[in-house]
Amino acid sequence: MKRHKTNFNASFTLIVVLFSLAVTNCKQKDIENSLNLNCNNRAISTNTTAIKDIKNTFQLEIPASWRRQLYVDQYASKLHCADTVKELNDTYIFNLSWQEGELTLDSLFTHGLKLNALQRNESKIISTKSFTTRNKPSYSIYSKYNSNGVLTHDMQLYITNKDNSFYRLSVLIFGYEQIEERLCEALNIFKTCKLLK
């Protein structure tokens, strides 16, 4: 009788572990899925350099040839970068920041982001999504608009922290061609990012 009880306990434990993994994987939807993208096999440059922000809140790998600018103040640490060798219609602007302050991903916050996106010229929201990434509550908004005659795609990602701070990723893509490819490349760069807070 004791042997059957042990087998039952082991089976029960295995079921609980598998169920927990399945639930965790469902909750940890990646950014690409939140944007309905298929970014398989979209590699970034093999010649990369590690960049760490001034406040030591994040570190990531970006192509070594990119122009980059770091910014810091009392409440934020930011990285702005892009491939300035390419034409604007062939590249994108990648902005990552850590910001001090509480961020609550509630309907008031998301409604404000949507209103802001729709105030731009000829704007359209492509997708919005609340999800979990890196075990942190997150929200993405992806929109497009016309800026001085140039079609601009704007993807923003907000990731909350427990320490009264948050991360914000912004990717700006200009033009009409290879939008998904450039967005996927930017997201692959973000995959190299270590969030240190």
Describe, in plain words, how this protein is organized in 3D.
- The termini are far apart.
- The chain has a single domain, classed as Mog1/PsbP, alpha/beta/alpha sandwich (Protein Transport Mog1p, Chain A), CATH 3.40.1000.
- It has 197 residues and is of the alpha+beta class.
- A hairpin with a 4-residue loop joins strand 8 (150-160) and strand 9 (165-174).
- The radius of gyration is 20 Å and the shape is globular.
- The protein is built from four helices and ten strands.
Topology at a glance:
Blueprint: H1 2-27, H2 31-34, E1 48-52, E2 58-63, E3 67-72, E4 76-82, E5 92-100, H3 107-118, E6 124-133, E7 136-147, E8 150-160, E9 165-174, H4 179-191, E10 194-195
Antiparallel strand pairs: 1-2, 2-10, 3-4, 4-5, 5-9, 6-7, 7-8, 8-9
* CATH top level class name: Alpha Beta
How far apart the termini lie comes to: 51 Å
Largest sheet: 7 strands, antiparallel
Mean pLDDT: 85
Task: Give, in spatial order, the strands making up the sheet with the most strands.
Answer: 3-4-5-9-8-7-6
What structural class do you assign from the helix and strand content?
Answer: alpha+beta
Give the ordered list of helices and strands: HHEEEEEHEEEEHE
Tally of individual domains: 1
CATH topology: Protein Transport Mog1p, Chain A
Low-confidence stretches: 8-29
Percent helix range: 25-40%
CATH homologous superfamily annotation: Mog1/PsbP, alpha/beta/alpha sandwich
Which second-level CATH architecture applies?
Answer: 3-Layer(aba) Sandwich
By DSSP (H or I, 4+ residues per run), the number of helices equals 4
Kindly provide the radius of gyration, computed on alpha-carbon positions and rounded to a whole number of angstroms: 20 Å
